[in-house]
Amino acid sequence: MGRLAAIDCGTNSIRLLISEIVDGTPHEIHRTMEIVRLGQGVDATGELHPEALARTRAALENYVDIMKFEKVQRVRMVATSATRDAENREEFFSMTAELLGHIQPGAQAEVISGEEEAFLSFRGAVHDLPASREPFCVIDLGGGSTEFVVGTHSGEIAGSTSVQMGCVRLTERIMRSDPPTPSEIEVARDYIRERLDMVTTLVPISQATTFVGCAGTFTTLSALAQGLERYDPSMIHCSELNFEALRVLTDQLAATPSAERGMNPVIHQGRADVIGSGSIIVQEIMAMIQRETQARGFVISEKDILDGIIDSLREPE
């Protein structure tokens, strides 16, 4: 089967994973991420901003060069919240078809539903966790939306949903001050709680025993909680975060100006201005989990939708 590539283009970042399939098992060759903020202003204007499209094109051109160098044979690119919402999304898709066609004729970004996004994230996130810890609830906190999916290690899904609640969306819509004001935080909490009420109605959160956090907000929180001097995926993957300690950390982040956050080497410059909103989302998710279950912590996974996409490419067409 050779080398496969997965690309995830979300509201805040675009990420690439290249894996080689050896004896039916994927082996990671290259994994990278760039902050492009494709969702810049989408919530307010309904369109992808020209500067955001230009940043995304530049990043994707770089990824195509990497894929050529690594001799990738097949690629799948998924586009999530920002492109689902944009009126001028065809400009984005034409650009991806032009560039990805250099790797695989006919390839272009796909808009996937929140439910498929949740399922692919689930497959990747639980891959390295023992089945003895199921049922799992995987929480993929993105820039524009957050996915919740409950299921077993074998991939049997009990329920999933996607809600319009992400760190970029909340920063642009509600938490505009730097740092956010107490009143902005309260409005944000009300907004988050309304959406989490929908989650508990649609997804059997109370059945889960292990809660798995994936994507940039969760992985950055793990790096901060561990006091890492640099972002080290091997230290973050499968780490565990206690809710009580996490409340202290997230309170501190929400109260800190973005310029000061950005001075920490484990916080990407493109995440410094939105991790305050992400912290408030995480706090409300913790409160929901404690209302519904006896769980008192998160397992953090560096594997996520990219790994699920690679798995999907391995399946017969």
From TrEMBL:
Keywords: Hydrolase. GO terms for molecular function: exopolyphosphatase activity. It catalyses: [phosphate](n) + H2O = [phosphate](n-1) + phosphate + H(+). It comes from the Bacteria. Residues 17-292 form the Ppx/GppA phosphatase N-terminal domain. Its EC number is 3.6.1.11. InterPro entries: ATPase_NBD, GppA/Ppx_hydrolase, Ppx_GppA_N. It holds the Pfam family Ppx-GppA. Belongs to the GppA/Ppx family. Homodimer. This is Exopolyphosphatase 2. It comes from Corynebacterium oculi.
